[in-house]
Amino acid sequence: MTPSWLTRPIAPLHDDAARHAHERQQQLTKPPGSLGRLETLAEWLAARQDTQRPAADRVAITIFAADHGLASEGTSAFPQAVTGEMVKNFAHGGAAISVLARELSAKLEVVNLGTLNDPGPLPGVIDARLGPGTANALHGPAMTTEQLQAALASGRGAVARAKDKGSQLFIGGDMGIGNTASATACACALLGLPADALTGPGTGLDPAGVARKAALIQRALDTHREALNTPLAILRHLGGFEIAALAGSYITCAQHGLPVLVDGFITSTAALLAVRIQPGTRDWLLFCHRSAEPGHTRILAALDAEPLFDLGLHLGEGSGAASAVPLLRLACALHNDMATFADAGVSAGDAR
Predict the structure, then answer these.
(1) Is the torsion defined by CA of 89, 94, 98, 102 positive or negative?
(2) Is 317 a catalytic residue?
(3) What CATH number labels 59-333?
(4) pTM, full prediction
(5) What angle, rounded to 10 degrees, do the helices at 179-191 and 241-256 form?
């Protein structure tokens, strides 16, 4: 059953704001188009913030954490205990995303949707555990219908908190040992591809490990093939709690008009799920980087997305999306603070 809130309308873009932003870009003291995507980034934000002065100052980052039953089959180079240990690391400020959030003065929260090991109460961590991770997809659906709906709703709740804080941008991050396997399975089901077309090393598997991981993912796909007829069914049978929460958060952002910065492989898979559930969600997603995880390029192509940069990142946590925030801030500063030809008394060019 589809939760009713998932089908609510998507917020419209603001065409007048987009037009005014584009017109301003043509009047700034530079040849039109010479700042490339720094120009179109400002226009993209203006159309979604309904303003002639777009901004990227207030950023909300939510990390969704969960373990995966499929990881018990050896799909990761790291033990599942790392998920709970990293939740503690987030809370104590030692993770990459913790450092990035501090540098950006961004609001960071962590939602524990189900770690195998309970890390206990922690500052900045919301306990929303739905179980000790998902079930093993080789033996049955990864989650129950009730767990799926609760995970989707956790994403919705994170966006509500971000909106309450006056956030201008939302970043969703992921943490979960084994989640590249779950994301790959979901992406394969959505794109109609075999497991070996998308499977990558994740946290550092060698070629033999990647081959073993692909074989396990293919077994999961074959086990559930008859049931994989909708995006929500794919999520329930193959996905993870954090992947579902990310998809729910992206749809909610689009419904409430909050622009999203999408991170890497896991979050882009969640974005593809969200767009398949609610196609209008795509208008509110900005894809930040191309992950070194090999399947990411295929997912980006399916979303008609050209990311902002490629730095070889494949950490997750929302780290690539957070790294894009300074670029957006520069785009906004250029758009808002550069002089026009008229302001500066500079002769404009002739485009003939």
Answers:
(1) positive
(2) yes
(3) 3.40.50.10210
(4) 0.96
(5) 60
